[in-house]
Structures are given as structure tokens and as C-alpha cells.
């Protein structure tokens, strides 16, 4: 256990109510998905309203998959995002240009199937690196974990690591113990239905993450001499 728990990113936020739930449960960041096939896609108008309320309280990431840079920059400007999460096949040069054009923090996500996927992150000089799972062409939100032991092959250890993929209130403590991430990311396991969060599940996840913090050590007993001086 660490002295403090990892930060939490609640992804797949689609509405103001769920954004408030995320913030009230101690979110470091929220994710607004702009990938059309996703059942958690956030409408642009809703995203702008959410970002307007929350971008001064927490990080607001827009999630993109293989989108032209011009479109990413346009969306970041319209919504007023603070971060961009790139969840497709974007390369290091794309990530650097996305940061330059938008002024946003950049998180690069990879789907981990082998140690090579993890090692490949060393080429990315980004603000955050995310390790995620995937199934076929599904980019996140699969509800499945990957082999957490593969995270040992990661380079650029100075870059904050975000663990994602199949985390839930029951397994997140184990994932934190094995990977020791800077933050954890969750979407599908805290939903009542795709695109709509469950208050109970969301709170349970946050409590499970907080529970990984090391308990404070009790102060040592006062020496006999000190006790006598007090008396």
C-alpha cells in the first residue's frame, strides 16, 4: 500500500448529473468520449456544458480514436477541454502536435496484449500514459482486464501511469497493488446502463480505491522520562 491512493478518472461521462457524481466522489478527472461507435459518446453541446462547470475543479479529457488533428483541435476549442486522451493508433508525432495545437495535456492509451505493447510507450513523450485492455476492435470499455504483470516492462517511469481496463470495486485494489499506477480509470463497471452511471457502483469504486492507502502509523509511546516530566 502507498501512503495515498491513486487518483481516479471516471470515463464515459455523458451528462451533468454523472459529472457531479464523479466530482463528489473525488474524481481527479472525467472523460468525455467523442468516438461515434461508443455507447458512451457525449454530445458536443452536453460536453461543452459539462466542461464549463467542471474544468476549474478537475481535468476534463476528451477521448478520441484515430481522428484528424484538425478535428481534435476544433473539438478541444469548442468544448474547452483541459486534456486529450488518444485511444487509437496515433503516433508520437501526432501526440506532440496535438499538445502544441490545443495547449491541452495529452494522455496516450495503448491496448495491452503483450510486453511489446507496454514497451512501445517509451516513444511517447506525453503527460500521461494509459494501459488499457481491449477486445478485437473495441477501444476500451470492454470490461476485461489485461495481464497486469506486463506493466513491469514500461519505460519512462517518470510519466504518470493510468491503469484502465476491466477495473471494478472488487479488483481495483489488486490492480493497484500489482501495477502501482498514478491513477486508475473506470467506465463500464460503474454504470447502471451504457452511458449512465450508477451512484452506488461509482461510490463503491471510489471507496475501494481510497481503501488502498496505507493506514497512518500510530505515534510511538512516550518514554518513561517524558511521562515523568509531564507528571
Please give a structural write-up.
By secondary structure, the protein is α/β, with parallel strands linked by helices. 32% of the residues lie in helices and 21% in strands. The chain contains 8 helices and 12 strands. An 8-stranded parallel beta barrel has the order 1-2-3-4-5-6-9-10, surrounded by 5 helices. A hairpin with a 2-residue loop joins strand 7 and strand 8. The C terminus is likely disordered.
Quick structural summary:
This protein is an alpha/beta fold. The chain contains 8 helices and 12 strands.
Q: On the 0-100 scale, what is the average pLDDT?
A: 89
Instruction: Let me know the number of strands.
Output: 12
| Helix proportion | 25-40%
Category by helix and strand content: alpha/beta
What integer value in Å does the Rg equal?
19 Å
Tell me, briefly, the overall form.
Answer: globular
Strand content: 15-25%
- Which strand order spans the largest sheet, edge to edge or round the barrel? 1-2-3-4-5-6-9-10
SSE string, helix = H, strand = E? EHEHEHEHEHEEEEHEEEHH
Low-pLDDT stretches:
223-231
Largest sheet: 8 strands, parallel, barrel
> How far is the N terminus from the C terminus?
38 Å
Secondary-structure blueprint of this entry?
Elements: E1 7-11, H1 16-24, E2 29-33, H2 44-54, E3 59-64, H3 69-79, E4 83-86, H4 92-102, E5 105-111, H5 115-119, E6 128-132, E7 134-135, E8 138-139, E9 161-163, H6 172-179, E10 183-186, E11 191-193, E12 196-197, H7 199-210, H8 224-230
Parallel strand pairs: 1-2, 1-10, 2-3, 3-4, 4-5, 5-6, 6-9, 9-10
Antiparallel strand pairs: 7-8, 11-12
Helix pairs in contact: 3-4
Amino acid at each position: 500500500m502507498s501512503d495515498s491512493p491513486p487518483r481516479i478518472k471516471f470515463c464515459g461521462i455523458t451528462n451533468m448529473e454523472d459529472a457531479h457524481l464523479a466530482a463528489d466522489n473525488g474524481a481527479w478527472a472525467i472523460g468525455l468520449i467523442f468516438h461515434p461507435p461508443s455507447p458512451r459518446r457525449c454530445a458536443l453541446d452536453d460536453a461543452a456544458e459539462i466542461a464549463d462547470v467542471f474544468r476549474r475543479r478537475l481535468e476534463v479529457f476528451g477521448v478520441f480514436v484515430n481522428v484528424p488533428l484538425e478535428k481534435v483541435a476544433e473539438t478541444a476549442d469548442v468544448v474547452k477541454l483541459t486534456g486529450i486522451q488518444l485511444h487509437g493508433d496515433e503516433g508520437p508525432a501526432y501526440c506532440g502536435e496535438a499538445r502544441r495545437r490545443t495547449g491541452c495535456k495529452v494522455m496516450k492509451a495503448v491496448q495491452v496484449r503483450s510486453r511489446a505493447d507496454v514497451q512501445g510507450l517509451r516513444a511517447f513523450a506525453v503527460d500521461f500514459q494509459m494501459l488499457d485492455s481491449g477486445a478485437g476492435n473495441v477501444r476500451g470499455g470492454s470490461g476485461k482486464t489485461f495481464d497486469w504483470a506486463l506493466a513491469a516492462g514500461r519505460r519512462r517511469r517518470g510519466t504518470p501511469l493510468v491503469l484502465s481496463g476491466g477495473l471494478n470495486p472488487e479488483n481495483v485494489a489488486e490492480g493497484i497493488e500489482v501495477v502501482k499506477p498514478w491513477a486508475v480509470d473506470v467506465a463500464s463497471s460503474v454504470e447502471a446502463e451504457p452511458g449512465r452511471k450508477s451512484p452506488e457502483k461509482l461510490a463503491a469504486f471510489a471507496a475501494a480505491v481510497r481503501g488502498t492507502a496505507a493506514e497512518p502509523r500510530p505515534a510511538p509511546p512516550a518514554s518513561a522520562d517524558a511521562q515523568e516530566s509531564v507528571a
